[in-house]
């Protein structure tokens, strides 16, 4: 295989190939000896000058590819033509273009299938890097496809600005491709469009009455069906109405089943009721009431020791890694004051009273699914929240 066959641009003649810094440079020229004047159409072989064009092409083995094209300028020998000098052109590269047509087709696909940001990012991955604005500009230059009569037409609304301005999107449901956009969702605009393409056999639409009336008027023989989303919406609305209508019966059934379950549980637990002993309660409450000590206490003690030794406030702050305001507040305290926050309680003041009551009366297990330690722990935390 020759390099020209691998290059696959038969109109070019390759003179040299260079490689530098992940870039393959292909030096080429156009094979033809003559060129046609774009003004009068007469061929000319009279060369006036040369110039070079740098054209981006498809990547080569994960390397960027650039064609350095040596282009010629010809003199037009037609005395009646207003063009005296013109540049030769080739069908592989458009006039003033900086990339080959085959590279441009990939960017055309990116501009249609992807957003500007994603298209720009992906183009850099294949060494055809362009900006977001370039992708958007390429998309705006794309010619709109010719609208053909769809057999299965989809009609739905779409938002220019959600909750404010809406239009209508028309979709060929057999290809799942949008074919046109209307500026509003009024029936008048849809009627005008359907008048141009009235031979749709099936129309899928949402529950809008304006779409229904327009389709009935212009395409009376078309079968109208709801799409899957709106079928589910219809089902949801129907179930909502139904369950609301029987909600009193549902509440009665839930109450009846709950009472049945409570009675059955209570009857089964009566055979397993045991009174907790004083020793069990004391050990459980001791474990439950063993709350973690205040983490500030160690630092407070160190501050007081250094204070007694006469250490200055600034050095204590630096050595212990705490602020001078904290050291200053510890200086004036004899004992560490408890933290004050929104969830603080006076639960500790009632611990002795709670222990006395539990030692005196004990605690009866009510539910079979709760063990004694778990139950007493829960009750102590409930008292903590109440206080």
Distance between the termini: 91 Å
Using the CA coordinates, give the radius of gyration.
Answer: 42 Å
Write the H/E string, N to C.
HEEEEEEEHHHEEEHEHEHHHHHHHH
| Coarse shape | flat
Largest sheet: 5 strands, mixed
User: What is the tally of beta strands?
Assistant: 12
| Mean pLDDT value | 82
Strand content: 15-25%
| Low-confidence segments | 273-278, 287-291, 365-387
Total domains: 5
Q: What would a concise description of this structure say?
A:
By secondary structure, the chain is α/β, with parallel strands linked by helices.
Give an overview of the whole structure.
By secondary structure, this protein is α/β, with parallel strands linked by helices. It folds into 5 domains: 3-97, no CATH class; 105-141; 152-231, Ribonuclease H-like superfamily/Ribonuclease H (Nucleotidyltransferase, domain 5); 265-294 and 340-387, no CATH class; 296-337. It is 42% helix and 20% strand. The protein is built from 14 helices and 12 strands. The protein has helices at 3-7, 101-113, 116-125, 132-141, 187-196, 209-218, 228-245, 247-269, 278-288, 297-308, 313-320, 324-331, 351-361, 372-386; strands at 12-20, 23-30, 35-36, 43-44, 47-57, 64-75, 85-87, 152-161, 165-172, 177-182, 202-205, 223-226. Strands 1, 2, 5, 6 and 7 form a 5-stranded mixed β-sheet that branches. A 5-stranded mixed β-sheet has the order 10-9-8-11-12. The protein has a two-stranded antiparallel sheet with strand order 3-4. Strand 11 (202-205), helix 6 (209-218) and strand 12 (223-226) form a beta-alpha-beta unit. Helix 2 packs across helix 4 (132-141), helix 9 packs antiparallel against helix 13 and helix 9 packs across helix 14 (372-386). It is flat and about 125 Å long.
């Amino acid at each position: 295989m020759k390099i020209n066959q691998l290059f696959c641009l038969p109109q070019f003649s390759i003179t040299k190939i260079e490689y530098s810094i992940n870039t393959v440079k292909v030096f080429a020229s156009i094979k033809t000896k003559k060129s046609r004047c774009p003004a009068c159409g007469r061929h000319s072989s009279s060369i006036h000058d040369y110039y070079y064009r740098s054209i981006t092409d498809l990547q080569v083995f994960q390397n960027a590819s650039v064609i350095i094209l040596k282009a010629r300028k010809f003199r037009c020998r037609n005395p009646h033509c207003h063009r005296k000098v013109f540049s030769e052109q080739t069908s592989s590269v458009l006039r003033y273009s900086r990339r080959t047509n085959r590279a441009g087709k990939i960017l055309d696909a990116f501009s249609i299938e992807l957003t500007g940001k994603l298209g720009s990012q992906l183009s850099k991955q294949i060494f055809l890097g362009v900006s977001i604005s370039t992708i958007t500009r390429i998309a705006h230059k794309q010619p709109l496809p010719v609208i053909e009569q769809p057999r299965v037409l989809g009609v739905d609304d779409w938002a220019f600005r959600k909750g404010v301005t809406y239009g209508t999107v028309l979709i060929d449901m057999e290809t799942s491709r949008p074919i046109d956009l209307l500026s509003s969702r009024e029936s008048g605009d849809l009627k005008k469009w359907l008048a141009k393409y009235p031979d749709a056999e099936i129309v899928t639409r949402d529950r809008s009455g304006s779409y229904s009336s327009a389709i009935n008027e212009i395409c009376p023989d078309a079968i109208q069906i709801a799409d899957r989303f709106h079928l589910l919406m219809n089902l949801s609305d129907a179930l909502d109405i139904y369950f609301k209508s029987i909600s009193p019966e549902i509440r009665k059934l839930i109450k009846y089943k709950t009472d049945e379950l409570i009675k059955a549980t209570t009857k089964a637990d009566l055979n397993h009721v045991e009174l907790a002993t004083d020793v069990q309660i004391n050990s459980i409450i001791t474990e439950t009431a063993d709350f973690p000590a205040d983490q500030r206490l160690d630092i407070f003690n160190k501050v007081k020791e250094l204070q007694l030794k006469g250490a200055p406030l600034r050095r204590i702050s630096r050595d212990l890694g705490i602020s001078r305001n904290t050291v200053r507040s510890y200086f004036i305290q004899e004992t560490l004051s408890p933290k004050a926050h929104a969830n603080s309680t006076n639960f500790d003041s009632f611990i002795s009273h709670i222990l006395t009551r539990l030692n005196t009366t004990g605690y009866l297990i009510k539910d079979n699914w709760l063990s004694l330690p778990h139950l007493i722990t829960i009750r102590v935390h409930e008292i903590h929240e109440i206080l």
